[in-house]
Amino acid sequence: MPILFLRLRETVVHRGQKLIEFTSVATGLTEHAAVSIPVQPGEIASRVAALTEKKRSGADPIDTARELIGNGEEVVFIVGRSNVAEDASFVESAIQTLRASYPKAKFLSALRRSNVHGALDMGLAPNLRPGRTFQASEGRNSVEQINALASGKQKAVLLAGGCLIGNVVDQKTAKAALKKANVVAVTGHGGATLEFADVVLPALVANERTGTFTNIEGRVLSVQAKVVAAGTAWNDVAIASELAEQFGQSLGLSSVEQTAQTIESTTGYPAWSVLSAQSVEGLLVNSSNEGPAIRPLDPIAFPGVQPASSIGLGAPTGSLASTTIETVSTVERADEGDLDKVKAAKSAAPKAKEIRLVVARALYDDGMAVQASAAFDNLRALAIATFNPDTAKKAGLSAGDRVKVSSKSGKATFEVREDVNAVPGTCTVLLGARDAKGTDQVRVLVEFEEPVTRVEVVKA
Question: Could you tell me if 125 and 260 lie in one domain?
Answer without folding.
Answer: yes
